[in-house]
Amino acid sequence: MLCEGTVTSESDGWQLQLMDLRDGPNMHRQGNLVLFPENGAKFLWAHVILKNTAPMRRSFDFKTCVLDFGQYGIPASMIAWSLHMTNYGMATRNDYDSGEDRERYLGFAYPVEYLPRVLACGPNVIKLQYTNPPPTARRE
Q: What is the reported pLDDT for 87?
């Protein structure tokens, strides 16, 4: 694991908890489809819990989640509820009742030699603190 330990951000009635950030696995099943990163990329997986702290029912789209890469953002290309099970037909947009939370794994195809500095989901931004960075990785 690259980052371990819960980090929390709260903004605009959403609470985002980053549980960990993992380098790999570099394959993911969606039904009969097996996904691999493109050449020069790896899968980084952010294990998150998102909670609606507003007093009303609202929806959230996990497609708003990005890892920074310089001045650009790399969006989550996979949204899963498990790294070990098939995640066929996973909805990116979900409705949340007030106080409801959901756990997800967000998969990002990220350049092999680099590590992100920030995870952003909607209005929430979490600065990444690495506990086990690879010795050759550069932070972009």
A: 58
